[in-house]
Design a protein that fits this description.
This protein has helices spanning 17-20, 31-34, 47-50, 54-69. By secondary structure, it is an all-alpha fold. It has a domain at 19-69: 30s Ribosomal Protein S18 (Irregular), CATH 4.10.640.
Amino acid sequence: MAQRPQKKLFTRKKTCRFCGDKELKIDYKDVKTLRSFVTERGKIIPRRILGTCATHQRQLCEAIKQARQIAFLPYSGSTQG
């Protein structure tokens, strides 16, 4: 009989980066910050992975979509092929 893999003993609770640091603002013009919330393929990373709160995740999605509309961010990642 195969053994089950061991569960992790402790996982740290993910906290919202924007709630923790009040200086950090979500702005569609700040492409450098927005890039860290988008995958290489151009997809927005979900909040269960990032750990952002629901309010800031909504603001983040709106800012990313706005930046894409103005062409600050690409809609899709660079395709190699």
